[in-house]
Structures are given as structure tokens and as C-alpha cells.
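ok so i was messing around last nite and threw this chain in just to see what happens. nothing serious, just curious
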Amino acid sequence: MTTNQPRSGYTLPVFACAAAMAALEYLQTRNQSIEQVSIDLINPAETVNILIEQIAILTDNSALAITRSDPGDNLDLTRNTSIWAMVEWWDSSEPPPTPPCQGGAKEQSSPPYQGGAQEQSSPPYQGGAKEQSSPPFQGGAQEQSSPPYQGGAQEQSSPPYQGGAKEQSSPPYQGGAKEQSSPPYQEGAQELTPPTPPCQGGAKEQSFPHYQGGAKEQLPPPYQGGARGGELSDTIFIKGGEGIGYDQKTGQTAIYRYAKTLLLANIEKILPPNKSILITFILPQGKRLATRTSNAAFGIVEGLSLLGTTGISQPLTVPEQLEQYKIQLQEKAKKFDSLVFCIGENGLELAAKMGISPHQMIKTANWLGPMLVCASLAEVKSILLFGYHGKLIKLAGGIFHTHHHIADGRLEILTAHCANLGLPTFDLQKVFNCSTAEDALQYLRELDAIKGENWVIRVYGEITKTIDQRSQNYIYTHCEKNIKVGSVMFDRQRKIIIKSENADIILG
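result:
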């Protein structure tokens, strides 16, 4: 009997890039017969054809194209959602369409008075207010500062939780990429950067030669500043429109490295010399769909992210995908004694920024238990667990399938560790009644700041010890093998909270 293999599709950045290419081509040629465009995915190194659903001229200087998401055989909330890209000619002699955003806060002061005459130029940028200057650029930075943390109270800026479980930190699923935040990797293939030479065979690599001891960016994305948009090059500007999320803290639009790299590589091929363009991306259903993701837990609000490190959307929710992960693990175990398990895209990207070789990374999705057993059977000597604290904390409670529909308990586990270390009852109640693990972490950070204590390090240090020990016990129970397991936890801003002692040993 023939078994049908799950069909892969493409991630959101691919459809966004295709829409932008079609709009640019139409703006130049007025060719109404554009039914598809060819996209170089870069990762993987292949060219694919993406269908164009609709296309239209808006003005003499702008055009709009629409594609529709097809993530393949995934239970993906972005399935069939439309992706719009508006391309307009931009005068490169003009200033960039978006002023730099200084940390998301509103500008408090005016520029110094320079003389007797009244200021004739545009008013200073007011943070959350829409930008009034630069005519082609019609959107601005929405309000980006978060309200102060109110103890156990729910976060005011997050969309209401739509499911049964408290925690919202399960990574959003964006066409094969569950993880959204984060600026990002929302679960796929190896990170494009930093560049790492392929393994040449021979003896297994036992260390992490590229590890830099911190989350230092080794190959920054083309654009580093600006609210809700920015420049990819001297001639290509991008902007997040309706339904594209933005980072609540920095104000930067949630269009990340792979999407930018994909756009730059493909758009430059068809952009005429001495021409500049502004691309505005719109997801009409983005705001609504974002309420069903954990984007808000990572500080991404008002929409979805264009996130990922690959153009291929692999089916992550079918049993066959677990088997594919196991095959990848077995192949990498032939070359390395130490492997890094990343639950989602954020972990993959952050690990790469720290200098860990992508060749040693394995994406596990929520299947940590089966993957730990598979690694032990493949004779791996040590495993580094790398993940968002709201996910990885479950292992401290003996939960080795981390999907929130299977089991939760994050706040209960966190509260139990706090109690064991002597946190006062009043504060325990605050932690337990937080809406998310991220809120609870913030509460502990505020306690440390106010009282000059170190609850975050103490509590999360104990949690990582428990994770390491329970993971090692899990492996021994199933395989009777002793494998060193270490853990690294990060927050929604993708800042490292803690590395366990075992993690430091494994990283060398």
C-alpha cells in the first residue's frame, strides 16, 4: 500500500517576496498577464514559481499585487490568507521613508531653537503618532512603549488569550514556522548565518568551535533601525502596513532576516538602475490571526511576522515530520558528539547568533522526549537544550511533549521553585496569578530591582538544574544510557536568562 507523504509548502516571506516582485514588474511593464513569478529561495538553494492571484496599477507610480499563502500539509493558521505588496517609485534623494525610532518611546523634547524665525520644517517625530512628512509614507510607528508591569495583572497590550491554557508562549505557526517572535527562525532548516564551513567527515566534532560566549550578532540583517520599516539597500525600502506586527519595545516592524535577505536578492535582479522603490506589505487578516498566536508573549503586537530561515514550510504537526527530525538527528550524530536541540525558530536563530554551528542544531518542535531518546540511541554524548523559558520550563515538571494542548503547568512549576527557595507568600501568589510565564519573569525582575535581590538567577538556576536532571533521568529510563544534558533559557526579547552549569561545560 502506498503511503502519501505530507506535502510541503512555502513560508510567508516567500509569498510576500513574490507579491513585491509581481507589483514591481507590473509597475514597469504594465503586463496584465503576470500569473506567476520565479523566486530564488536562497535557503534551500532552489527556484520556485509562486502564483499571483491579483495585480493592479494604483497610480502612475504605484502598483499592488496579491498572493495567497499555501503552507502545504500543515495545520497552519495562515493557510489561504492573502498577502499584499504595494510597490511605489521612491526618490532616493529624499530622506528614508521612516525616521529612526529610539527604543519605541515617544520623543519628549523638541529640537533646540535656532533663531528668531519660526521652524519651517516638519514637526519632530512623536513616537506613536503617524508621521506627517514624507508624502509617500502614510503610516508611522504605532505606540511602542508597554505599560508598566502591574504585578500579577494581565498584560494590557497583549491580545486576549483564545485558548484553554494560560500560557501563550507556544510559537506562532507561520507556514512551517511555529515560532514568530521574535525576530527570528517561526521552524525549519539551518540558519543561513553565521557562515559555517560544512563538516568534512572523519572524526566527530566534539566542541562548539564557533561559540562566542554570548548573543553577539555575527551577520546583522540589512536594516537595523527605524519604526515599522527601513531600508534594505540604498534603493530598496520596506514598510510594514496593516496586519504586519511590530516589536512593542523597539518599534521595528516584524520583518526579519530571512525575509529581508530574500527580498534583497530577488528584487535587486529586476530593479532598474538608478531607480528606488518603497515596498509596503499588508496582511488584511494579520491582526485577527495574531490573536491566535503567542506573538504578544514575544513583544510582537498588531499582526503577524514575516519570519523564518527557510522558504520551505515543512509539515510540523504530522507524525511523519517527527520521523524526518529523527533522520536529521541520526545524520548529524554521525558527525558530532554534541548536538543542540531547539524547540522553535527563535532558539535556532539565537543559537546561531551565539556562534553555535547550524550543523549541530536540531529542531525538535514539541517532541523533546522522543528526540532525547533518539539522540541517546545514536550515541550522542551531550545535548544542549536551547529554548524559550515558557516552553523549556515544562521539562522541569516532567513534561516532555511541550505543546500546550498536551500539558501545561508552567506557572505551577515556576511557583513551586520559587516556594522551595523561600519567596514570600505574597510574592508567590503574584507569580502564580500572572497571565504568562513572561509576566512572572518580569515580576521577579522587578523584585530584584526594588529589593536588590537575585531571585531571577536563583529561581531559574534551580529550574535549569531540574531540567538537566530530569532530562538525563528520562534518557536513562528509556535507554539506560548516561548522557550529559545542559539547558539555556531565553526571554521574549531573545535575551539569555540563564545557562545551566552543564550548558557551560557542553559549550566549553
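not much to say yet. The CA atoms of residues 290 and 464 lie 30 Å apart.
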